[in-house]
From TrEMBL:
Source organism of this protein record: Hydrotalea sandarakina
UniProt name for this protein: Thiol:disulfide interchange protein DsbD
Pfam families found in the cross-reference section: DsbD_N
Keyword Signal: yes
InterPro entries tied to this protein: DsbDN, DsbDN_sf
Signal peptide annotation: 1-19
Alphabetically ordered keywords of this record: Signal
Length: 149
C-alpha cells in the first residue's frame, strides 16, 4: 500500500513540475534620485539564454512588445516615454513574417518621474512582455510591480 501511495505522490509531483509555466525573465525594480523631486525608475530585465524579450517598439503583426502600464498616482508626474538601454537586435522573423526588435541577456528600461511636494510615495504598475527562442515562444506574461520613491 505504501508503494502505491508513493507512486501516486511521485506522479502528482512530476505532473505538477511539468505543468509549471516557464518564465526565463527576472525583473529588478529601483528608483534613483536625480534631484530634489525627480527620480529615474530603473527596471532591469535579465533574460536567460537562449531566450530574448521584445522591444517596446516592435511593430504590429509581430510578437507582443514589452509594455509598461503605470497606475495613476496624483503625487507623481511622468516625464516622456520609457526608454530602453541595451544591445538592440533587429532581424526578420519567419514565424511572424516581419522584422522584430529584441534584446538578449539584459535590457534596462528607464522612466523619469517628478514627485509633487516633499512626500514619500511609490509608483506601481504592470509590465507585459513576451519571450521567444529560436524554436518557440511563450505566451505573453503580465507582472505587477511597485517601486518606492
Amino acid at each position: 500500500m505504501k508503494k502505491i501511495v508513493f507512486a501516486f505522490a511521485l506522479m502528482f509531483f512530476f505532473s505538477y513540475i511539468h505543468a509549471q509555466i516557464k518564465d526565463p525573465v527576472s525583473w529588478k525594480y529601483e528608483a534613483v534620485k536625480k534631484s530634489g523631486d525627480t527620480y529615474e525608475l530603473v527596471i532591469t530585465a535579465t533574460v536567460e539564454k537562449p531566450w530574448h524579450i521584445y522591444s517596446q517598439n516592435t511593430g504590429a503583426g509581430g510578437p507582443v512588445p514589452t509594455n509598461f502600464t503605470f497606475k495613476k498616482n496624483p503625487l507623481v508626474d511622468f516625464s516622456g516615454k520609457t526608454q530602453e538601454v541595451g544591445k538592440l537586435q533587429k532581424t526578420y522573423d519567419n514565424n511572424f513574417k516581419t522584422n522584430v526588435l529584441y534584446y538578449s541577456g539584459q535590457v534596462v528600461f528607464k522612466q523619469l518621474v517628478k514627485v509633487k511636494g516633499n512626500v514619500k510615495t511609490n509608483v506601481s504598475g504592470v509590465v507585459e512582455y513576451m519571450v521567444c527562442d529560436d524554436q518557440q515562444c511563450l505566451p505573453p506574461t503580465k507582472k505587477s510591480f511597485e517601486i518606492k520613491l
